[in-house]
Design brief:
The complex is a heterodimer.
Chain A: H1 6-16, E1 20-25, H2 35-46, E2 52-56, E3 74-77, E4 80-83, H3 85-95, H4 105-137, H5 144-157, H6 162-165, H7 185-190, H8 192-202, H9 204-210, H10 223-238, H11 249-263
Parallel strand pairs in A: 1-2
Antiparallel strand pairs in A: 1-3, 3-4
Helix pairs in contact in A: 2-3, 2-10, 4-8, 4-10
Chain B: E1 3-8, H1 18-29, E2 35-40, E3 58-61, E4 64-67, H2 69-79, H3 90-121, H4 128-139, H5 149-158, H6 161-169, H7 180-195, H8 206-220
Parallel strand pairs in B: 1-2
Antiparallel strand pairs in B: 1-3, 3-4
Helix pairs in contact in B: 1-2, 1-7, 3-5, 3-7
Classes of the chains: A alpha+beta, B alpha+beta.
Chain lengths: 272, 230
């Protein structure tokens, strides 16, 4: 048996101990209900890091005070604290360069940034109307009135500005990616059987890549895949509504993605 | 060995084809100087008859020819790996594929309808009858596109939001320096710039500054092209 000198074993122990924590938005039963938080979850697994997931509910944001701001996700890695999902994945790539790459160099990072922004500005906005009422059911009951009031006010008035929507509250209603909508949460979701046909069209750039290769990043998945998977994880956490048709290349891709990291995705939320 | 690019020709010396601009910028990026540019017109594809297909751009490098701007970019990257990278990695290449598909969404419906009449006016006169007949099957009467471009541009500009957000964070789509991802998107703007005076992007938009930076690349190569807009 290997004998370690005390100091060295201490260091080794510290290395083995979990020093990384990810603070994520949580709902009823600690369900992880933010598309933005799922991106770093998969990125952390990609980097083969062991980490703890800490759920934060809407009314528990004061627990994030150590990060100097109030939005999830927040990553704490030993002495380092980072908020904003893009900043987190960039940090992981920088801090763990010997682990599998998330971006594949500078141009890859630049392009991944665009896909990240496309996820936020197109995909999430388009998805929201498919299951926002279902999402409400998965918010902690004590926070549901707050959730309803803030969402209905925001999406009705188009006051969805960049500042109020950074991170977990998502994109502005611009660009015709979902049309204008309003009313109650029930109203917003009411036309989902027809809206989903538009959503499938918005996803065309993903489809174009996936008819040529198994993952958005190439032969193996990387951050571009995790970014686009984020909203799909959000969806399956809160809703059974079928976003994709079975013969869509995106359907098979999603299945491959959900199998990653010991079925992390398949083991979460509703089956798809 | 000098390479040759066969590209779409237009009225006088206007060369506006967005796909050809992707390739032109890729050639400059790879420092493939000097290179020859030969115009091909809609009515007469005989200059690329040797390829037995009708699509431009066509790149000829020694005894090889390649068509389709994407295939050309991949060819240049793979065969001139010691030159500045267009993709940098498989992930970079894959990201460019995604952005290319996004641009395709923006083109139609979108930019095509905004500049359709301008495109007609910048054709070589001998190409116009053929082009009108071909395009009117898809779009209806060309004259219906003479007016209303500014309003269409207002709506189109909103759809650029993901690009705007990215370019507010970094100077190029390729990050700190340009890559093929930039040239894919730039091709659309250069197409419009060559043939149309419609104000696509406002001065205070992060996209405006990016377009200026790309126009400045390679000693202002794209800026020096004959264009309808400043």
């Amino acid at each position: 048996m290997l004998r370690l000198r005390p100091r060295r074993s201490l260091r080794l122990l510290k290395k083995l101990a979990v020093t990384i924590a990810l603070y994520e938005l949580a709902g009823r039963g600690d369900a992880k209900i933010s598309p933005h938080c799922w991106k770093p979850v998969f990125a952390l697994h990609h980097k083969q890091l062991v980490f703890e997931r800490i759920g934060i509910k809407f009314f528990e944001k004061d627990q994030l005070v150590f990060s100097g701001q109030k939005l999830v996700p927040v990553l704490q890695d030993d002495e380092t604290t980072i908020s904003d999902s893009w900043a987190i994945v960039e940090y992981l790539e920088r801090a763990y360069p010997d682990r599998p790459s998330l971006f594949g160099g500078n141009i890859g990072r630049g392009a991944a940034r665009f896909i990240h922004d496309w996820t936020n500005k197109v995909q999430i906005f388009a998805f929201r109307r498919l299951f926002i009422r279902d999402a409400f059911d998965h918010v902690d009951p004590a926070e549901q009135a707050h959730y309803r009031a803030t969402r209905e006010a925001r999406f009705n008035n188009g006051i969805d500005d960049i500042q109020s929507t950074r991170e977990h509250d998502v994109a502005s209603p611009v660009g015709g990616y979902g049309g204008s909508y309003g009313g109650t949460l029930e109203d917003m979701q009411a036309d989902r059987d027809t809206h989903v046909l538009n959503v499938r069209k918005f996803l065309e750039p993903i489809r174009t890549v996936l008819v040529r290769q198994p993952f958005l990043a190439g032969d193996t998945p990387a951050y571009a895949d995790y970014s686009v998977l984020g909203p799909f994880m959000w969806a399956k956490t809160v809703s059974t509504f079928p976003i994709l048709e079975v013969d869509d290349p995106i359907y098979a891709w999603r299945d491959r993605m959900l199998h990653l990291f010991d079925d992390l995705g398949h083991g979460t939320g509703y089956p798809v | 060995m000098t390479i040759t690019l066969f590209e779409l020709g237009g009225l006088d010396d206007f060369r506006y084809c967005p796909f050809c601009w992707r390739t032109l910028m890729a050639i400059k990026h790879k420092r493939m100087e000097p290179f020859e540019r030969i115009p091909v017109y809609y009515r007469d594809r005989s200059p690329i008859g040797f390829t037995e297909q009708r699509k431009v751009p066509v790149l000829v490098d020694g005894d090889r020819w390649i068509n389709d701007s994407w295939n050309i970019a991949c060819y240049l990257e793979d065969n001139y790996a010691d030159r500045p990278a267009l993709f940098g990695s498989e992930m970079g290449r894959s990201g460019a594929l995604f952005i290319s598909a996004w641009v395709q969404q923006l083109r139609r419906p979108g930019l095509t309808e905004i500049v359709l009449w301008d495109a007609f006016e910048h054709l070589d006169p001998a190409d116009r009858d053929w082009w009108r007949e071909d395009r009117e099957k898809l779009f209806g009467r060309l004259e219906d596109y003479k007016d209303g471009s500014e309003a269409k541009a207002d709506a189109w500009r909103q759809r650029l939001e993901p690009l705007r957000v990215t370019l507010a964070e970094q100077p190029f789509l390729g990050g700190e320096s340009p890559g093929y991802v930039d040239y894919i998107v730039f091709g659309e703007f250069q197409w419009a710039r060559c043939i149309s005076q419609v104000e696509l992007i406002k001065v205070d938009d992060p996209i405006y500054g990016w377009r200026e930076r790309v126009l400045d690349l390679f000693d202002g190569f794209a800026r020096a092209a004959p264009a309808a807009s400043a």
